[in-house]
Amino acid sequence: MQIPETLIVMRGYPGTGKSTIARALASALHTPLIDRDILRQTCVDILGNLPELGRLSYELMFAAAREQLRLGLSVIIDTPLTYRTTYEQAQHMAHTFHIPLLVVHCHCSEDLQRLRLEGRKGLVSTFQITSWDEWLRWKPLFEQFETDSCLLDTAQPLDDSLSQVVHRIQELHPHKVQ
User: Fold this and answer.
1) 3-state secondary structure of 59
2) CA–CA gap between residue 132 and residue 111 (Å, rounded)
3) How far apart are CA 25 and CA 141, in angstroms?
4) pLDDT value of position 127
5) Dist CA 67 CA 56 (whole Å)
6) ∠6-104-45 over CA atoms, to 5°?
7) Which of 28, 41, 125, 160 is most exposed, with the fewest beta carbons within 10 Å of its own?
């Protein structure tokens, strides 16, 4: 399926299935995926674990997304969308390119989140949260703010989640989805 230009930004706590959904969407929609964790891990591998690399990885993520949008492509950004400022940057980018922004907000039960966290050690990066205690220390940093989002319960089958996102994209682009 091809979709009209859309900026899709993932959102959700670690372990809620954001990356799984993002990869499945990218494959199904033939849309570039920019994973902030991969960018950050590459920076760490080259430069060491410097404090500035978190911000640098976000800047690289948005630079890569802007280039995809300049090419007339949709793009999926895989990030927890922890901070309001990141959401505002995404809104600004969508506005600049005159395209809709779709936030795909992933959630699941705490039991499932915990199971996923503790089972993913080292799958993408060395700095991923891989324990419930670590998550509980990190959770207060996750800013709460409202978005017009597509809310997914990632305990549901993957195909159901993909269908829900495609339906939401169709709502954003009536008469354009092929």
Assistant:
1) helix
2) 10
3) 27
4) 72
5) 17
6) 90
7) 160
Separation between Cα atoms, residue 22 and residue 138, nearest integer Å? 22
**Rounded to 5°, angle at Cα 101 from 108 and 67:** 115
Q: Determine the Cα–Cα distance for residues 18 and 120; give it in Å rounded to an integer.
A: 13
Cα–Cα dist 136/31, whole Å:
33
What pLDDT sits at residue 3? 83
- The rounded distance, in Å, linking the Cα atoms of 140 and 142 is 5
CB 78 within 8 A of CB 104: no
Q: b/e map of 38-77 (b: 16 or more CB within 10 Å)?
A: bbbbebbeeeeeeeebeeebbebbbebbeebbeeeebbbb
Q: What is the pTM of this model?
A: 0.93
Dig out the tokens for 25 from the structure.
């969407």
pLDDT attached to residue 129: 86
Is residue 100 within 8 Å of residue 173, measured between CB atoms? Answer: yes
pLDDT along the chain (178 residues), means of 10: 90 94 96 94 91 92 98 96 95 97 97 91 70 92 91 97 95 75
pLDDT value of position 120: 77
Per domain, the residue ranges of the chain are 7-172
Query: What whole-number distance in Å separates Cα of residue 45 and Cα of residue 178?
Result: 40
